[in-house]
Amino acid sequence: MSITMDDLRTAVNRFAQKNGEWAGAPMLVQGLKLRIEPRYPWQGLDGAAFERDDETDEEREVQRISAILAEHYAKGHTCINWWYCFARDQYVYVIRGPDGKSRVTLRHEHYGDRYSFLFNSLSVAYEAHSIDAEMRALETLRTNIKSHLWDLYVLCGMFIESSERSGITYIFRKGRPTLAMHKTTGGKIAPFVALCLHPIGYYEDSFCGAMVPTDDILAHLLLMRGDEHRFWKKSNQHPLWAVQSGI
Amino acid sequence: MLIPEATIAELPPHLSVLSCGAGDLKFSFDSDDPKDVARAQRCVEDMLKRGYQILVEVDGKLVRCTEFDKTKNEYIIRERVKGKGGRKKGVPAKSHRAHGVAPTAGG
């Protein structure tokens, strides 16, 4: 008898609820580490993944950058530092050559970063998320928003709602961080930050949380309506140019 | 499979908890079975201890629940009073929808 991912997921969540975890437990996936909220009782899941390698995050970051730069530099060159320059709207890399001399390279963002996020999100959806859970979450969302917003969500995976409290307008997006928008001095409405937040935890280098995407949207929507201050306090606020913003 | 629109407005009040694997769990305080009610009470008290956010629909708005009164089956919210900060107020669980969200991590 073969065991499917659905069977495994059901067993994990049944075990979690039996032990008092009402929100269930996240599934591990291949190669993508889980990041768990500090108050979640099973902290052993933090940093866990199937077939995880032992490189540190810093080592992986340097290797990733080196791989990108290998397109333009011969062997023996290494990246010793990098940052984003807002003035130039480019990444700045400090490269040390085999002669020991350092030089600076400017580079626009590589499409590979965005592609990795997309592909990793696909992997999480396949291994960790349940279609039944998503359908139930869709039903719950439908009872919480107006019908024309529901139509928009079905058609394009997003909808807009404004906060009466703060005047900020939010675009809630399926599988992506929520965009916060405000009125500019010219009177137009423009996004200024992307808010990323997941109940229980999320998978590194992806847009996915421990719960299905519509549950993430529900969490954002309910917290924005019920405790907007906390919504901002708990979210990671990504600049719009970052890969993590999902733009 | 989706709830018909006409039925949405008639949904009985319940506590809906976002959950991995299940989409969301529903608990009712309006059941004839005392076991269901006891389970719902246990769920709310336990969730508050574990740091869950319980948001109650009151007069069309969502308000955070800080405590639960088991004897009266009421969510305790903080009601804003002008010039006096806030005061505690009990909201019957039987007649108000509520949502439970697990502790959240920035992604």
What does this entry look like structurally?
The complex is a heterodimer of chains A (247) and B (107). Helix content of chain A is 35%, strand content 23%. Chain A is of the alpha+beta class and 247 residues long. In chain A, helix 4 packs parallel to helix 6 (213-226) and helix 6 packs across helix 7. The longest helix of chain A is centred in the middle third of the chain and has 17 residues, at 111-127. The radius of gyration of chain A is 21 Å and the shape is globular. A 7-stranded mixed sheet of chain B has the order 2-1-7-3-4-5-6, covered by helices on one side. In chain B, a hairpin with a 4-residue loop joins strand 4 and strand 5. In chain B, 37% of the residues are buried. The model of chain B has no long low-confidence stretch (mean pLDDT 81).
DSSP summary, beta strand count of chain B: 8
Question: Which sequence of SSEs, written as H and E, runs from N to C of chain B?
Answer: HEEHEEEEEE
Q: What's the mean pLDDT score of chain A?
A: 86
Using DSSP, what is the number of strands of chain A?
Answer: 10
**Class inferred from helices and paired strands of chain A:** alpha+beta
Q: Which radius of gyration of chain A do the C-alpha atoms yield?
A: 21 Å
**Subunit organisation of the chains:** heterodimer
Strand order of the largest sheet of chain A: 5-6-7-8-10
End-to-end C-alpha gap of chain B: 31 Å
Number of helices of chain A: 7
**Rg calc of chain B:** 15 Å
What shape does the CA trace of chain B take?
globular
Main sheet properties of chain B:
7 strands, mixed
Averaging pLDDT over every residue of chain B, what do you get? Answer: 81
Biggest interface, CB < 8 A: A-B, 60 and 37 residues
Unreliable segments of chain A (pLDDT under 50, ≥5 consecutive)?
A: none
The secondary structure category of chain B is: alpha+beta
Tell me what portion of residues of chain A adopts beta-strand conformation.
Answer: 15-25%
Q: How would a crystallographer describe the biggest sheet of chain A? A: 5 strands, antiparallel
